[in-house]
């Protein structure tokens, strides 16, 4: 556990072709099932202090208790995702690790106290999120999300689906409905 960020629960990858990565990870790595939200538009998103329109495809699956996220940006505005793809052309290295915090503001404040800088922040339908980098190593990106009841419910359903997954129906459109 990180004293600053809490438990690291997710590894996130930014990709150019989400469907190709979904097929690869389900077929060749046996990870799934994947739950995919397509053309999701964030109600609020700021990149390096500037409001942007963020539309993306996002996919989630679990391997044990660890969640994997794939993100493909659909909108064309500069963002943390376009920046990452430009930094690593032709590759899809790990882009971020994420913690899910009940005390979102406290986690962001602890990170800032240690010199972490906000790169992108916003709000999804399930609460706030923040991506932070440190000037000492900007290739290390942490995401903090608020773990409210809706997000908790969705993540628990994704983990449960993975625990008993037999390889059938590897790519499922939409995310589970929050049960709160």
Explain how this protein is built:
The chain is of the alpha+beta class. The chain is globular and about 45 Å long. Strand 5 (55-63) and strand 6 form a beta hairpin. 24% of the residues lie in helices and 42% in strands.
Give the N-to-C terminal Cα separation: 27 Å
Which stretches are poorly predicted, pLDDT < 50 over at least 5 residues? none
What is the makeup of the main sheet? 11 strands, mixed
Helix content: 10-25%
Spatial arrangement of strands, main beta sheet: 4-3-8-9-10-7-1-6-5-2-11
Q: Number of domains in the coordinates?
A: 1
Gross geometry: globular
Derived structural class: alpha+beta
In the CATH hierarchy, the architecture is Roll
Q: What is the top-level CATH class?
A: Alpha Beta
CATH homologous superfamily assignment:
2,3-Dihydroxybiphenyl 1,2-Dioxygenase, domain 1
CATH topology label: 2,3-Dihydroxybiphenyl 1,2-Dioxygenase, domain 1
User: Could you tell me the number of beta strands?
Assistant: 11
Give the percentage of residues in beta strands.
Answer: 35-45%
Give the SSE string: EHEEEEEHEHEEEHE
Total number of helical segments?
4
Rg computed from alpha carbons, rounded to a whole number of angstroms: 16 Å
Mean pLDDT: 95
Give the SSE map:
Blueprint: E1 8-14, H1 18-27, E2 34-41, E3 44-47, E4 50-51, E5 55-63, E6 66-73, H2 80-87, E7 94-101, H3 104-113, E8 117-124, E9 127-134, E10 137-146, H4 149-163, E11 171-173
Parallel strand pairs: 1-6, 2-11, 7-10
Antiparallel strand pairs: 1-7, 2-5, 3-4, 3-8, 5-6, 8-9, 9-10
């Amino acid at each position: 556990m990180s004293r600053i960020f809490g438990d690291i629960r997710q590894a996130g990858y930014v990709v150019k072709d989400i469907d190709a990565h979904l097929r690869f990870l389900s077929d060749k790595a046996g990870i799934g099932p994947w739950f995919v939200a397509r053309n999701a538009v964030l109600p609020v998103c700021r990149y390096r202090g500037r409001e942007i329109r963020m539309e993306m495809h996002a996919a989630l699956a679990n391997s044990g208790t660890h969640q994997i996220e794939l993100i493909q940006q659909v909108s064309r505005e500069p963002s943390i995702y376009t920046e990452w793809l430009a930094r690593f052309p032709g590759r899809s290295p790990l882009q971020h690790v994420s913690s899910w915090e009940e005390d979102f503001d406290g986690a962001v404040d602890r990170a800032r106290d240690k010199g972490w800088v906000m790169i992108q922040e916003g709000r999804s339908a399930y609460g706030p999120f923040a991506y932070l980098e440190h000037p000492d190593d900007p290739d290390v990106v942490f995401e903090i999300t608020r773990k409210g009841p809706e997000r908790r419910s969705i993540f628990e359903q994704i983990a449960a689906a993975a625990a008993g997954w037999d390889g059938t129906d590897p790519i499922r459109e939409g995310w589970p409905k929050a049960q709160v």
